[in-house]
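Look at a sample.

——
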Amino acid sequence: MRIKVFTTGGSLDKGYSTEASDFVVQEPTIEEIFREAGAGFGYEIEPLLRKDSQEITDRDREAIVSAVENDPSERILITHGTDTMALTGRQLMGVEGKTIVLTGAMQPAAFKTTDAHFNIGFAVAALQLLPAGVYLAMNGAIFDPGRVKKNLSQDRFEAT
């Protein structure tokens, strides 16, 4: 199996910047995560954005949809910030004939305590098993982008 990965930033790729004295979106971490895990599948990574998901605009979402539509891959993983992941997922629901899974992390991959690695592994498994459609893979569960919300007090996603 070969998958295409589009990265957009979000907490998954955040790290601490001493210059900014804050956490900022840095280089995509997924290549390192795949390498450390000994990924046994082919993949291609294409960075699209380096933004916190709250900064992603409608124009950015159009660019994500266009990139997915124009890529020949049938299995696509999108790393995305969790705050607006469902919104981007809903925008992608018009894409046909592809299995598209969005995932991210509540805590940056660089943190000692993070859900990033688990969510990415789970999303890759989902890509191999799910039929064509658009899904969110978070917290060990698969969600329909049109029927999910982020529960801020519990730090997880829930079906609505």
The beta strands are 2-9, 14-17, 22-25, 42-51, 75-79, 99-103, 133-138, 141-143, 148-151, 156-159. Residues 93 and 134 are 6 Å apart (CA to CA).
